[in-house]
Design brief:
By secondary structure, the protein is of the alpha/beta class. It is built from eight helices and twelve strands. The chain has two domains: 232 residues, Rossmann fold (3-Layer(aba) Sandwich), CATH 3.40.50; 39 residues.
Length: 298
């Protein structure tokens, strides 16, 4: 396999520093190197001060470059750090918020939004298997659990930002109501065929689904594993004296024990592991139906 990976971990934020992100990406990079025989120079580790907004963008460009070695192209982008919501900039988000990664220099250089990520992912060949591992929060208000050694990988926006997100969500919903009403009228005038109506309903449901971190339907080989639902927070916790993101910790354990696990079973075991260990976050798996039962990295 033509495996190439980008592993970005950030602990040393000026606001709300974390503890387990560099451990996360270092451990998962080593797993791919040893378990899947990936070449060391094809697994880039970018951490802390080096993980600027421009550096992440440039390295995603490198990640997209084909190896031209005659093997199927497999690409992994693992991000461990803060995540934050920002008011939607182009009216394409049902909840009114763009999901953003927070580079080390985000206060000056800005966030990296899901819309921008979607543009960057378009640089990958359509045949490339792109695996996104996102161990960060999308929103939340708690920065430190007073009862245990857990931090949360989220930056809390100001109230004015939440107000703008709420307004964007309402505007999006009204726009969708208007669009759906018009499409139903057009369909009624054009056809009463039940199969066409069912097809329309399926396309409509798909078009209204929230897409995360730049994953878009046009890239049919993209698989996203994220730490939690959009309204939840992702834990950065102490596991036997070493800090890790809860999602990454259990993901690595599962893959170490069963390298050929299917994506479906991986998602289920990951959810069960977090639940059994009292983590409230629910990891998310977004995977094309054609790949859901295939072995990991195959």
């Amino acid at each position: 396999m033509g495996i190439r990976g980008l592993f970005v971990g950030i602990n040393s934020y000026s606001e709300r520093p974390l503890k387990g992100c560099v451990n996360d990406v270092t451990a998962v990079r080593e797993l791919f190197r040893t378990q899947h025989a990936a070449a060391d120079d094809q697994l880039r580790l970018v951490t802390d001060a080096a993980a600027t907004r421009q550096a992440i963008i440039d390295n995603l460009g490198w990640l997209a470059e084909p190896l031209n070695d005659g093997q199927p192209e497999i690409r992994i982008f693992h991000y461990a750090g803060h995540g934050v919501q920002h008011p939607d900039q182009n009216g394409d988000e049902p909840d009114g918020a763009d999901e953003c990664l927070a580079p080390i220099d985000y206060p000056s250089a800005g966030l990296l939004s899901d819309d921008h990520l979607a543009e960057l992912y378009q640089g990958f060949l359509g045949t490339t298997r792109l695996i996104l591992l996102m161990d960060c929060c999308h929103s939340g208000t708690i920065s430190k659990d007073p009862f245990s050694d857990i931090r949360y990988r989220t930056l809390t926006p100001a109230k004015v930002v939440y107000d703008e997100i709420r307004a964007k969500k309402q505007a999006y919903q009204q726009q969708q109501v208007d669009n759906v009403a018009q499409q139903i009228l057009d369909l009624q005038q054009r056809s009463a065929d039940p199969s066409e109506i069912a097809k329309f309903a399926g396309e409509l449901v798909s078009s209204l689904q929230k897409q995360s971190f730049g994953q878009r339907p046009q890239h049919e080989n993209t698989i996203l594993i994220s730490a939690c639902k959009a309204e939840q927070v992702a834990a950065d916790a102490n596991f036997g004296g070493t800090y890790h993101g809860a999602m990454t910790f259990f993901l690595k354990n599962i893959l170490s024990e069963n390298p050929q696990i299917s994506y479906a079973n991986l998602g289920e075991q990951l959810r069960r592991s977090l639940y059994d260990n009292k983590f409230q976050q629910i990891p998310q798996l977004e995977c094309p139906n054609s790949l859901i039962n295939q072995p990991f990295l195959r």
